[in-house]
């Protein structure tokens, strides 16, 4: 298990479960992953980035001495073309809770499971990073940090970039090289649960949630390139 914590950000990588007698693989330095990414020659000429992310958010309501907490899952699929056109499909999934609990937070007549489409026919699509990332690690570090004034701006930038772009092999190598210089992460196995979490930077006494209580996380499901926006 490998963790890296910063204010407002928690990254967790969990290896696949293995038999009790299986040998635990030695953690790999991020620089090894960067070299592997740079050697990847399998990319085609497809020009549309395609991303799928899932997340849940914890909602809690306090009434007297009663606390109602519900986790709301959602899914986003993004297609982003090189000419600025883009399409997103946002889907609110059914919370694992009773109807009464759900209606504490949403309109009783509201329904889940209806996708919301957003098309940008000619651009611009609202993003934090309009251009493709630089492939020089020194330049990339400053490029990533420009969207935040926090001490962990580079890490925040990486998180945001992965929500907007399917990276090329050179871009992946540059991002991994930057991470190696800003974290003490090592690669401990294939992620099987959650890729990133948002944490409460202060306590929530009413629901006995103390720092660093998890209030939401996002899972990066898919990142590839396709020939066109569907």
Structure report:
With 230 residues, the protein is α+β, with helices and mostly antiparallel strands. Helices cover 20% and strands 33% of the residues. The protein contains 5 helices and 10 strands. It has helices at 30-38, 99-102, 137-145, 153-161, 169-182; strands at 2-6, 9-13, 28-29, 48-63, 66-81, 86-92, 116-120, 186-187, 196-199, 214-226. It has a 6-stranded antiparallel sheet, with no helix packed on it. A two-stranded antiparallel sheet has the order 1-2. A two-stranded antiparallel ribbon has the order 3-8. The two termini are 38 Å apart. The model is unreliable at 1-22, 192-197 and 199-203 (pLDDT under 50).
The figure for the number of domains is 1
Q: Which structural class is indicated by helix and strand composition?
A: alpha+beta
Q: What is the string of SSEs from the N terminus onward?
A: EEEHEEEHEHHHEEE
Assign an overall shape: globular
Summarize the structure in short.
Helices cover 20% and strands 33% of the residues.
Question: What does the secondary structure layout of this molecule look like, with pairings?
Answer:
Elements: E1 2-6, E2 9-13, E3 28-29, H1 30-38, E4 48-63, E5 66-81, E6 86-92, H2 99-102, E7 116-120, H3 137-145, H4 153-161, H5 169-182, E8 186-187, E9 196-199, E10 214-226
Antiparallel strand pairs: 1-2, 3-8, 4-5, 4-10, 5-6, 6-7, 9-10
Helix pairs in contact: 1-5, 3-4, 3-5
List keywords for this structure.
230 residues, alpha+beta, 6-stranded antiparallel sheet, two-stranded antiparallel sheet, 10 strands, globular, disordered N terminus
């Amino acid at each position: 298990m490998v963790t890296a914590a910063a204010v407002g950000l928690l990254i967790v990588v969990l290896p696949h479960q293995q038999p009790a007698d299986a040998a635990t693989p030695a953690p790999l330095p991020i620089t090894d992953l960067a070299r592997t990414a740079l050697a990847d020659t399998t990319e085609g000429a497809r020009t549309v980035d395609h991303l799928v992310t899932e997340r849940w958010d914890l909602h809690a309501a306090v009434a007297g001495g009663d606390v109602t907490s519900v986790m709301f899952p959602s899914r986003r699929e993004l297609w982003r073309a090189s000419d600025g056109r883009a399409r997103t499909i946002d889907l609110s999934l059914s919370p694992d809770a009773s109807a009464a609990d759900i209606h504490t937070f949403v309109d009783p007549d509201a329904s889940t499971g209806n996708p919301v489409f957003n098309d940008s026919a000619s651009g611009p699509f609202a993003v934090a990073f309009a251009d493709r990332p630089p492939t020089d690690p020194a330049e990339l570090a400053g490029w990533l940090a420009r969207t935040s004034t926090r001490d962990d701006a580079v890490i925040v930038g990486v998180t945001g970039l992965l929500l907007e772009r399917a990276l090329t092999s050179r871009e992946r190598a540059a991002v991994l090289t930057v991470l190696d210089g800003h974290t003490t992460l090592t690669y401990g196995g294939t992620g099987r649960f959650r890729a990133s979490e948002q944490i409460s930077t202060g306590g929530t006494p009413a629901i006995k949630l103390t720092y660093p209580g998890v209030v939401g996380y996002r899972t990066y499901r898919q990142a590839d390139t396709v020939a066109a926006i569907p």
